[in-house]
Amino acid sequence: MRGAIACAAALLSVYSVAAAAEPSADEIAKRIVGGEAFRWDGGQSRVRMVLIEADGKKKERSMDVIGRQKEGRFQTLLRFLSPEDIAGTAFLMLEKGGDAYEQYIYLPGIKRTRRIAGRERDGSFMGSDFTYADMQPPDPNTATHKKLPDENLGSDACYVLESTPKPGSSNYGKVMTWVRKSDYIALRTRFYDRAGKLAKTLYVRRVKPFEGKPVVVEARMQTQDTNHATEMFVDSLERRDGLSDAQFTPAALEHL
Length: 256
Description:
Elements: H1 2-21, H2 25-31, E1 43-52, E2 58-70, E3 73-82, E4 90-97, E5 100-107, E6 112-116, E7 143-153, E8 156-165, E9 174-180, E10 186-192, E11 198-210, E12 213-223, E13 229-239
Antiparallel strand pairs: 1-2, 1-13, 2-3, 3-4, 4-5, 5-6, 7-8, 8-9, 9-10, 10-11, 11-12, 12-13
């Protein structure tokens, strides 16, 4: 009997340790590997953006993306290659610390670079279902997080996180995220407006390893009301060392 009690106590102790090891909502939020396709650490990628109308008609756009991490902050430059009417359009995003980012866009038609700021960040990025604000990785410190019961997406066990942005930090009222337990990839993200209505959903469709880290290489953002969607495909990804400071300045946008 004493042996049985000791065994039960040992099992209970193991269970308690395992339960205590479960991450909190804040820990999950900080460990999420984002679905954005524009945050490479010392790399270059070729990305396709496919805009899909409600009737199924598609418009395809291609772009080159270079990015690096400098002093713990990410810098990304994106340049459209096709179609002809937007070729040369360039977008620069600079992480400034905390939740602060600077964004610039160069429009070859008017040969001018301008900064994206204020309410313009909530506008569509190049006609897609992503806003300019969506282009920057979310800062977990700008929201309060609540852990909901775990769920499976297909065969993937996921944490479910409900995040409520702090006042003034986002145009969304609530964000729900399904985070795969094995690698903390956000497999599904639902964005709700401030009235609590579902606005759009981001689906991660394919992930592959790059230098030992999981990278999202295919995703789809679907707008609820219009049924318009944007699909993103990372067709190639390679390491790029030696990217210079001069490549990540507003002036660099105007040089093809």
